[in-house]
C-alpha cells in the first residue's frame, strides 16, 4: 500500500501521462486527412496564381531550374533536330505560402501537395524548341490535372516535369564523319514584368542514369546568362559521332575504289576491257557520292572535308577515264599520219627512260597479220635495249637518219606509261593514308 506522501507523486505521474497522450493525439490528428485538407483551404484562400509569390511585388523570384537528361532518342544532322527525353526540376520560394502556413497552426505538417492549376508557376519557355515551346507538357488533360507542386513548410516549392522534346540545332559537318554537334536547350523567361531570375545548380546534365546512344557520344555544358530583364539557362548537349560504322561502310570503300581505279592503266589495251573497267569504277563513285549527299545537311554553309574528298576522287576517276579514252584513241589511230616533232621527242624521252624502243612499220605490219600473237606486242613494248650494242651502233643511232621512227602507237605507249606512273604514285599515297587512318581510329576507339 502506498503511503500518504507517495500519493502526490503518483498523481503527478498520471497528469504527465495524460498530457503526453493529449499532445500525441493532437499531433496525430493534425497530420490527418481533414487537417491536410483544411491546410490546403487555408493556404489557397484569396491566393492569386497571377501575382508573383512575393509580398513586395517589385522583387524578383529566383527560380532554380535543373535538367536531367534521360536519353537522346534521335538526332538528324540533315534537319538539325534533336529528339530527347528529360526531366525538369523547378524550384522557387513562395513567401505567401510560407507566411500562411506559419500562421495556420498546422506546424506538424511539413510537406503538402497542391495542384499546379491552383498556384503560381514560373512562366518559362524553351527558345529553340521545334514543336511546343513550353516546358510544361502533359500526355492528357487528366495528366495535367493530376500534376502538382510540392511545398515545404519553409515555403520552398518543387515541381517536376517529364517530357519528350525536340529542339533545333546548328549542325557542323566540316569534319564528317568525325563531326561534333552542339544542341542547345535554352530555357528563357520572356515576361519581364514577372521578375523571374533563372538559375541552375547543374554542372553536367549527363549522369549515370542517362541512357547511352548507339550513334552519338553525349556530353554537356551548362551556362547561365542575365541580360536586362530577361534571364536564360542554356543546357548545351554536345553530340560526338561514333565514326566506326560510317568509316567502315562508306569511307573505306571509297578509298578502296580509288586505289583500284589507279590500276586501270595496268589493264592491257589489247584486252578491250580497260575502258569498261574504268567506267564501272566511275559509276560506283557516283553512287557513293549520292549516298554522302543524303546524310549531309543540304543547307549548311560549310562543306565537309569528306565531301570535298569524294568530289576530288570523282574528278580523279573522270580524268582516268579520259586518259583511257585518249590512249585507246592514239593506239588505234592511223599509222600513216605524221606525229608532230614535239610529241615525237617526248615519246622518245619517255620510252628511253623506261628502256623501251619504238616499233617500226615492218614490225607493226607483221603483228597485224592474222597469225600474229597479240602478246608479242606487250613483250615488244617492254623490251629493254640490248646491252650488246657496240659503241659504234649507239653513236650511229644518234644520227638523225638513224633515229627510230615514231608512230601514234608509240605515242600511246608513252602516254600510257606516264599515266601509269602518276596513278601508281597517287595509289601508294592513298594506301598509306588508308592504313594510317585505320590504325588511328583503332587506337582512339580501342576502349
UniProtKB/TrEMBL annotation:
Its main location: membrane. Residues 38-243 form the Neurotransmitter-gated ion-channel ligand-binding domain. It is found in: Membrane. It holds the Pfam family Neur_chan_LBD. The lineage of its organism: Eukaryota, Metazoa, Spiralia, Lophotrochozoa, Mollusca. Residues 251-395 form the Neurotransmitter-gated ion-channel transmembrane domain. This is CHRNN. It is a multi-pass membrane protein. The keyword Ligase does not apply.
